[in-house]
C-alpha cells in the first residue's frame, strides 16, 4: 500500500514469497478491492541501502532473528518499529537499536498470506497506531504520520500514548487468544458459557492488574470495557493464535498468555487464569516447536 502511494519501499522477504513478489509483484486481495503492485523485494539486508524507517512485520518468535540480520545494515538515525501482537517487541528492538530510535506500534487487521506473493485482507479496517514510547507527540511522529496514513486502505494514527494503546489491545487479545485456543471455540460460543466467561474475565483482570503494576495508564474501567468489546465481536471470530493452534503452526503463545505469566512472576502479580491457559497449551506448542 505504501509503495502504491509513492513511498520508496523495500520489502525484505524470503523463500517462495520473495520469488513470487519478484516475479509478479505483490497482490493484495482486500475488502476494499484487489490490487497488484510492483515492489522492490530483496532477501539480503545488506542491499537495503539508506533507510529512514524499518518496519518489522514478522511473527513475534521471528523478531529476534530478523533484528539480528537487519540491524548491522541500518544507520544510527533510522527509526524502527514492530507491529507484533504482545507487549514486548519495542523492548526487543530497543535492546539492539538505539533506544531513542524505537517507536511503539500496534495494528488492527485480519489478513494472511493466501499464497506466495498474495495477501488476503479479510476484514477489519486496517489501522496502525504508532508513537513515542515515552508518550509525547514528537515532531518526527507528526511528520511521519501523514506520509504513512493512506486513509481507508490503511489508517495510520499518531498516538500520544502508544504504551496504553498496545496494552489496550493486549488486555483483550491475550485472554481471547488463550481462551479461544484452549476451548477451540469461536468467541460467540465461549463468551456466553458462564464458566468459560469467568475464565476469560479472570484472564482479563490479571492483565489489568499487571498494567497497574507496571504503571501503564489504562482506563479504570478497562475490564468492563474489554468484556463489552468482546461481546460486540462477530460470533464466529477466532484469533490468529487460535488458528495457529488449530492448524498445527507455531503460535505466539509465549508472547501472549506466556508473557502474562512471565510478567506476573516479575511484578509479583498472581496469574492463575493465564497460567492455566499457558499450561494447557504448552504440550502442543512444544510439539510444534520441535519441528522448527
Ligand atoms: N495478520 C493479521 O491479521 C495480524 C497480525 N498481527 C501481528 O503481526 C505480526 C505478523 O503477523 P502476520 O503478518 O500474520 O505473519 P505472517 O507469518 O503471515 O508474515 C510474516 C512474514 O515475515 C517473514 N519473515 C519472518 N522472518 C523473516 C526474516 N528474518 N527475513 C525475511 N522474512 C521474514 C515470514 O516468512 P516465512 O513465512 O518464510 O517465515 C512471513 O512471510 C504478528 O506478531 C501478528 O500477531 C497483528 C494484527 C493482525
Ligand atoms: C484481533 C485481530 C483479529 C485484529 O487485529 C488480531 O490481531 C489477530 O487475530 O491477530
UniProtKB/TrEMBL annotation:
Its EC number is 1.1.1.169. GO terms for biological process: pantothenate biosynthetic process. Pfam families: ApbA, ApbA_C. Gene3D superfamilies: N-(1-d-carboxylethyl)-l-norvaline Dehydrogenase, domain 2, NAD(P)-binding Rossmann-like Domain. Pathway: Cofactor biosynthesis; (R)-pantothenate biosynthesis; (R)-pantoate from 3-methyl-2-oxobutanoate: step 2/2. Residues 3-134 form the Ketopantoate reductase N-terminal domain. GO terms for cellular component: cytoplasm. Keywords: NADP, Oxidoreductase, Pantothenate biosynthesis. GO terms for molecular function: 2-dehydropantoate 2-reductase activity. It catalyses: (R)-pantoate + NADP(+) = 2-dehydropantoate + NADPH + H(+). It comes from the Bacteria. Residues 161-283 form the Ketopantoate reductase C-terminal domain. The keyword NADP applies. InterPro entries: 6-PGluconate_DH-like_C_sf (IPR008927), 6PGD_dom2 (IPR013328), ApbA (IPR003710), KPA_reductase (IPR013752), KPR-Related (IPR051402), KPR_N (IPR013332), NAD(P)-bd_dom_sf (IPR036291). Belongs to the ketopantoate reductase family. Catalyzes the NADPH-dependent reduction of ketopantoate into pantoic acid. This is 2-dehydropantoate 2-reductase. It comes from Aliikangiella coralliicola.
Amino acid at each position: 500500500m505504501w509503495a502504491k502511494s509513492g513511498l520508496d519501499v523495500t520489502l525484505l522477504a524470503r523463500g517462495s514469497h520473495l520469488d513470487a513478489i519478484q516475479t509478479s509483484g505483490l497482490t493484495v486481495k482486500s475488502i476494499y478491492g484487489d490490487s497488484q503492485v510492483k515492489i522492490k523485494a530483496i532477501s539480503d539486508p545488506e542491499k537495503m541501502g539508506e533507510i529512514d524507517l524499518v518496519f518489522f512485520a514478522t511473527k513475534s518468535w521471528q523478531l529476534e532473528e530478523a533484528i539480528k540480520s537487519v540491524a548491522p545494515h541500518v544507520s544510527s538515525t533510522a527509526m524502527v518499529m514492530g507491529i507484533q501482537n504482545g507487549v514486548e517487541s519495542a523492548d526487543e528492538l530497543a535492546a539492539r537499536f538505539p533506544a531513542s530510535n524505537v517507536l511503539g506500534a500496534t495494528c488492527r487487521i485480519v489478513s494472511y498470506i493466501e499464497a506466495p506473493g498474495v495477501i488476503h485482507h479479510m476484514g477489519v479496517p486496517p489501522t496502525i497506531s504508532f508513537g513515542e514510547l515515552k508518550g509525547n507527540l514528537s515532531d518526527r511522529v507528526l511528520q511521519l504520520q501523514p506520509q504513512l496514513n493512506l486513509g481507508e486502505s490503511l489508517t495510520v494514527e499518531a498516538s500520544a500514548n502508544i504504551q496504553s494503546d498496545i496494552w489496550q489491545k493486549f488486555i483483550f487479545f491475550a485472554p481471547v487468544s488463550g481462551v479461544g485456543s484452549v476451548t477451540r471455540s469461536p468467541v460467540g460460543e465461549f463468551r456466553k458459557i458462564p464458566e468459560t466467561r469467568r475464565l476469560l474475565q479472570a484472564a482479563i483482570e490479571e492483565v489489568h492488574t499487571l498494567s497497574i503494576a507496571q504503571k501503564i495508564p489504562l482506563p479504570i474501567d478497562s475490564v468492563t470495557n474489554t468484556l463489552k468489546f468482546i461481546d460486540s465481536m462477530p460470533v464466529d471470530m477466532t484469533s490468529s493464535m487460535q488458528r495457529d493452534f488449530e492448524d498445527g503452526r507455531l503460535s505466539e503463545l509465549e508472547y501472549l498468555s506466556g508473557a502474562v505469566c512471565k510478567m506476573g512472576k516479575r511484578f509479583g502479580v498472581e496469574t492463575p487464569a493465564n497460567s492455566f491457559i499457558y499450561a494447557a497449551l504448552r504440550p502442543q506448542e512444544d510439539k510444534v516447536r520441535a519441528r522448527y
